[in-house]
Amino acid sequence: MVAAFGLCACGPAVDTNESEGGSESSGGDTGSTDPSGGSMPQPEPEPETGSTPEPATSTTTMTPEPGSSVTSGGGFDDSGDSGGIDVPQSRSFLIAITATPVSPETPFQFLGEVTTDGFVATFSLTPLTLDVGSTDTPRDPLPPPLVFENIAVDDDGVFAFDAPEVLLPGAANPITGSDIVADLTIEAQFQGEKICGRLGGEIVVPIQLDLAGSTFSGVALLDDGPLPPVSEAQCQ
Fold first, then answer.
1. How far from the centroid of its chain's Cα atoms is residue 134's Cα?
2. Whole-angstrom Cα distance, residue 40 to residue 199?
3. Which of 12, 52, 130, 139 is most buried by a 10 A CB count?
4. Cα(234)–Cα(94) distance, rounded to whole angstroms?
5. 148-186 burial: b if 16+ Cβ within 10 Å, else e
6. Which segments in the chain show pLDDT lower than 70?
7. 236: buried, middle or exposed (CB in 10 Å: 19+, 13-18, 0-12)?
8. Would you say 88 and 116 are in contact if contact means Cβ atoms under 8 Å apart?
9. pLDDT tens digit string along 11-27?
């Protein structure tokens, strides 16, 4: 806020001379006479000091609530535009979960279907089969999908959710080939054609293992196109 201060410029007092029978100012009457016989000077008109500056204005960014639509101030609306971040209404992704502390070279892979309704997203992640030690063979879908609903997406395309007791079949485990049960926490962001974020939590079966430092990422797929190398789904 800019505060405007008024400036007062008052004129000099006018000299007066007393005379018998009354008082007159030299050069004519310049004001009323007070009881003591002196002339009360009148202030000269205040000179112009310029226009008062307008107060500064600020732009308030609205914080949307789930299910609402904001079309200005960088808001996320139903067109999928979120402050320059491309949030899909419905799109397929190759999703990679890279267990960095265990085996960063062989990420778990999923065929992801992402849909949004206002500020609420649903992720449906179908595991892809992988031979032990492989990143590209055979990569066949292995239903049923893992479905995560009611995920809030903010106006920067950021989302976060917990995924407790996730069961991953051994056929989709390229590290050991064994079934896995894990409690996961995910925080990520839509970034144009990609999803980039981090993954925490721990594997609880067959052994207990901290997953801190792991990543959750993805790349949008072309319609009816082949799956890209998993490296394209990862973020630097």
1. 37
2. 84
3. 130
4. 10
5. beebebbbebbbebebeebebeebbbbbeeeebebebbb
6. 1-88
7. exposed
8. yes
9. 444 444 443 444 444 44
